[in-house]
Amino acid sequence: MIKDITLGQYIPGDSVLHRADPRTKMLSIVLYTAVVLTVNSYMGYTLVLLFTLLAVRISGIPFKYTLKGLKPVLFIAVFTAVINIFFTGGGTLLFQYAFIRISYEGLGATLRMIFRLSTLVIGASLLTFTTTPIRLTDGIENLMAPLKRIGVPIHEMAMMMTIALRFIPTLLEETEKIIKAQAARGADFDTGNFIKRAKSYMPVLIPLFVSAFRRADELAVAMEARCYRGGVGRTRLRQLEITRLDYGLAAVVLFFAAVIWLLEASAL
Amino acid sequence: MPIIVENLSYTYMKGSPFERAALRNINLKIDDGEYVGIIGHTGSGKSTLVQHFNGLLKPTSGRVVVNGMDTMSKNLRDLRRIVGIVFQYPEHQLFEETVYKDIAFGPLKMGLDEKETDTRVKEAISKVGLGEELLNKLPFELSGGQKRRVAIAGVLAMKPEILVLDEPIAGLDPGGRDELLGFITNLHKSMRVTVILVSHRMEDIARHTKRVIVMNRGMIEMDGKPAEVFRDVERLEEIGLSAPQITYLMRKLKAVMPEIRDDIYTVEEAKKEISKYIGHLL
Ligand SMILES: Nc1ncnc2c1ncn2[C@@H]1O[C@H](COP(=O)(O)OP(=O)(O)OP(=O)(O)O)[C@@H](O)[C@H]1O
Ligand SMILES: [Mg+2]
């Protein structure tokens, strides 16, 4: 159950995507998102799909694993599909039965929606699959640095994000352990009605909160013991560095976006 | 009735890039009333193995049968009652407002009435060497060692026929350690409870258990009486373990006093052997 969540996980590797600078990857994802949201021709869809598959291939992440991340999308997809199909009024009629009316336009809008959502999730997954949380937040902090001048506490926000990301796996592991320990004492999590089931999670939630607070406390002490005192004057062990690889990657992504937008423009 | 493990293999996160074989083709039988120690390097699969005994983990292949019940079956209630598992750092699982309620959690879940539960709670707390005056306290007010005992009492109150303890003494002071192992051994002797003890401390295993299973990389490397297992110091060292300290001392002594025995694994035995040797000299 818990293990089905793949978005946000880092998978060690040594592909081009793993080695690229997080800033390059994040800016690429922004551009990619813009392309995915504006593309509107068969040719465009095909190119986006090919490009996405190619990126997955290059990353070296097993294809099946990437698809697993789409499971939550599936739910949203079905939901929007139903809404779209029923409520897109007008258009060319494809199929009608009682109050169900499926139009050509409604179906098209739904498919476009699913396509966009899936490719975006795959793109975002690729970013987190190939970037450690530390590098990700370093990248964000670096890109947002200009906002510091107008007093936005970028460093603190980035640090909070790093810590949160760092503790997701720890807390998941802890949850699993506590569930097991309580199950061994006869706790039963999946019988009864909704309220009963929600209540049955108390033996898990309370120890989990207690341990989360304990960890937060310990972490704060450990950080202070190592003289952490905010972002001012702080240097880093690992500097972010733009290399030839990043120029190459940026060039490929820019080229891809340019081709698609030119195609779209000429199709109009 | 016994625990029977046949060709058990277990893989964590099967089908993901993090896939990891934790157990490989384990075959094992543990009879009623045995006192078994499980040792092994960290990550060798000890915890994974013991979690199969009450169906918390299901075999990836092979099977586990406890008291004639296959752990793959749907109804695990009886199994959970028969096999009590005390996890590493069990104090982290406390959640009730009072010590009493926490210990009563298991018995009540088993469907016992209040009266029976009450007797069991009181029995359990005294078994772990704590006074009844603690019963109305908040678990979080207790010291670490007291919390540990309360958590163990919570498992004992279910009166398991098979008691599994996964590193129950990690992080306790020497006194607390001996006391805890003492009452577990007592429980084994007085109630004929099958005890399975996972530990990193060879001294404790040598002193308390009657059979030692050595795990290495998800497989059983050795299985036998403590004397048989600890005799093979070289093999233990090869897989990152060791014999009890006292064995090393006896080996050194033997180097200078060839008549002394060095197949000795507990301090008591060593004491006897050394005084015998000294008596012999006089
Ligand atoms: N929840 C889990 N998810 C994925 N892999 C796991 C999980 N728990 C254990 N493993 C892996 O399975 C292997 C066996 O772990 P296990 O916890 O059984 O070892 P152990 O012998 O109990 O070690 P220790 O002495 O450190 O407690 C290890 O390689 C570990 O990394
Ligand atoms: Mg363990």
Describe the overall structure.
The complex is a heterodimer of chains A (268) and B (282). Chain A is mainly alpha-helical and 268 residues long. Chain A has one domain (2-267). Chain A has eleven helices and two strands. In chain A, strands 1-2 form a two-stranded antiparallel ribbon. In chain A, strand 1 and strand 2 form a beta hairpin. The longest helix of chain A has 31 residues, at 154-184. The mean pLDDT of chain A is 85. Chain B has 282 residues and is of the alpha/beta class. Chain B has eleven helices and ten strands. Chain B has a six-stranded mixed beta sheet. In chain B, a hairpin with a 7-residue loop joins strand 1 (3-12) and strand 2 (20-30). The mean pLDDT of chain B is 91. Classes of the chains: A mainly alpha (268), B alpha/beta (282). The interface between A and B is medium-sized, with 24 and 27 residues. Bound molecules: adenosine-5'-triphosphate and magnesium ion (MG).
Strand-pairing-aware structural class of chain B: alpha/beta
Strand tally of chain B is: 10
Radius of gyration of chain A: 23 Å
| The CATH homology group name of the largest domain in chain B | P-loop containing nucleotide triphosphate hydrolases
Rg of chain B (CA only): 20 Å
Average pLDDT for all residues of chain B: 91
Write a concise synopsis of the structure shown.
The complex is a heterodimer of chains A (268) and B (282). Chain A is 70% helix and 3% strand. Chain A is mainly α.
What's the SSE blueprint?
The complex is a heterodimer of chains A (268) and B (282).
Chain A: H1 16-19, H2 22-38, H3 42-59, H4 63-68, H5 71-87, E1 93-97, E2 100-103, H6 104-130, H7 133-144, H8 154-184, H9 194-200, H10 202-225, H11 244-267
Antiparallel strand pairs in A: 1-2
Chain B: E1 3-12, E2 20-30, E3 35-40, H1 46-50, E4 61-66, E5 69-70, H2 77-82, E6 83-86, H3 99-109, H4 114-127, H5 144-156, E7 162-166, H6 174-191, E8 194-198, H7 202-208, E9 211-216, E10 219-224, H8 226-231, H9 233-238, H10 245-256, H11 267-281
Parallel strand pairs in B: 3-8, 3-9, 6-7, 7-8
Antiparallel strand pairs in B: 1-2, 1-4, 4-5, 9-10
Helix pairs in contact in B: 3-4, 3-5, 4-5
The structure holds adenosine-5'-triphosphate and magnesium ion.
Residues 46-47, 88, 166 of chain B line the site of magnesium ion.
